[in-house]
Design goal:
Layout: H1 8-16, H2 22-46, H3 48-65, H4 67-87, H5 89-110, H6 122-137, H7 142-152
Helix pairs in contact: 1-6, 1-7, 2-3, 2-4, 2-5, 3-4, 4-6
């Protein structure tokens, strides 16, 4: 039985809909890498092969979505895996908690709950989103950015942060 994958653009558009406030995106540039390293550390504390297996499977998924971004994700995941395996259990716990604090502060600015609340795939798409956002900041993948923004609108600053953490 074949598994249907949502396209890269659909995945990023769905995730981006929850992330239009620039401050939220900025907190994700800090929080998501912390959480990614933490996951590697926590899995690595159980057994390094567990961390390598999860990160390897995630990279295969990213490569199936898009080769160019997938290769960037392999580099990102490799760095996070290496850092997490060096960090250890206590550092992993601290990074995990602090990373999620950054995430929830960002969503307070956004005035919207995190994407994973409605779709658990958001947990896997979050790292891809920040790698794509870095690419967009560097002027890469303009057509992809335009496709996403045509459906979600451009990034902005919410005038009243945290007023409604709703499902919009």
């Amino acid at each position: 039985m074949a598994v249907a994958l949502r396209t890269l653009a659909k995945q990023l558009t769905s995730y981006a809909a929850y992330h239009r406030d620039k401050r939220n995106i900025a907190t994700h540039f800090v929080g998501i890498p912390m959480i990614t390293v933490a996951v590697a550390a926590l899995l690595g504390a159980a057994h390094p092969w567990a961390a390598m297996g999860v990160f390897g499977a995630a990279c295969v998924y990213y490569l199936m979505l898009d080769v160019r971004l997938g290769l960037a994700m392999v580099a990102y995941a490799g760095a996070a895996l290496w850092a997490g395996l060096q960090a250890g259990l206590i550092a992993g716990i601290v990074l995990f908690v602090v990373g999620w604090v950054f995430q929830f502060v960002g969503h307070w600015y956004e005035g919207r709950k995190p994407a994973f609340v409605d779709d658990l795939s958001g947990l896997a798409i979050g790292p891809l989103f920040i790698v794509a956002e870095w690419g967009f900041l560097l002027g890469l993948r303009k057509a992809l950015r335009e496709e996403i923004e045509s459906k979600t609108g451009p990034t902005r600053l919410n005038p009243q942060p945290g007023t409604a953490m709703t499902s919009r």
